[in-house]
Amino acid sequence: MTLPTLTTVQELDPVFGEMSTATFRLAGEWQGLTAREQSLLSLVADVCEQILGVPFELHVRAALNNGLDADDLRELLRFISYDSGYPAALAALDRLTEIEREHGLPGPTGQSHRVDADGTGSPLPAAMRAEVQALDPDFADYMDLQSRMRAGMSRISVRERAFATMTVDVLYQTLQESFRAHVGRALGAGATPDEVRAAVRATAVFGMTRTWRALHVLDALLAEREREREQDATAAGGRR
């Protein structure tokens, strides 16, 4: 048995196949993301939406073709489990293992990071940590644990992780505190505003109206950051 391809979609319904081909051709022409990043974000969307049938298999194929391996895919699922929810990530992990077994694909080698579950402290920014602590101390402890357990991850880059969490935000429409933090993380990892916009735009094939709303929120965030940058530059000039 081979992994499904776009031909599989056309065989299900030629008209839907034609629409899909045109849609993904246009999306493939958008600039700002690498093929690897596009593959990762498609898999994140599958987890959030629990689309674990043919689309998930297509995206696994694309990820493997773009240089990702079984260990990378597992790190992605481990990473997003705290935002997508552990049950959703677990269902995807189970399906991924099934796909590997069904199609004779290389499985994981066991390469992973150290899980600092019994450690102390938090890699969260101090201001965010204080805000969440004031909101609910037990929830703050939960966030500390989730962040600490992921601090040693390295197979998926910081930029890719930021884009992945932004994708969760768009699909779950959590466009307040977490979206702001994740956009800031992407920019801090060196992504340009246009690349951040591309990561949001990439979610359109999973639900256009949510992307529309997210782009409005992103515009406001980027404009706010630009105003702050200009104010800082003006203040710095005044101190000279």
Structural write-up:
- This protein is an all-alpha fold and 240 residues long.
- It is 72% helix and 0% strand.
- It has twelve helices and no strands.
- It has helices spanning 6-12, 14-29, 35-49, 54-65, 70-84, 86-103, 126-135, 137-150, 158-172, 177-188, 193-201, 208-238.
- Helix 3 (35-49) runs parallel beside helix 9 (158-172), helix 7 (126-135) runs antiparallel to helix 8 and helix 11 (193-201) runs antiparallel to helix 12 (208-238).
Kindly summarize this structure in a few lines:
It comes from Streptacidiphilus alkalitolerans. This protein has 240 residues and is mainly alpha-helical. It contains 12 helices and no strands.
Topology:
Elements: H1 6-12, H2 14-29, H3 35-49, H4 54-65, H5 70-84, H6 86-103, H7 126-135, H8 137-150, H9 158-172, H10 177-188, H11 193-201, H12 208-238
Helix pairs in contact: 1-2, 3-4, 3-5, 3-6, 3-9, 5-6, 5-9, 7-8, 9-10, 11-12
Largest sheet: none
Tell me the total number of β-strands: 0
Q: What is the helix tally?
A: 12
Shape: globular
What fraction, in percent, of the residue positions are helical? over 70%
Order of helices and strands: HHHHHHHHHHHH
Q: Give the uncertain stretches in residue-range form.
A: none
Mean pLDDT reading: 92
| SS strand fraction | under 5%
What is the CA-atom radius of gyration, in angstroms? 19 Å
Through-space gap between termini: 70 Å
The class by helix and strand makeup works out as mainly alpha
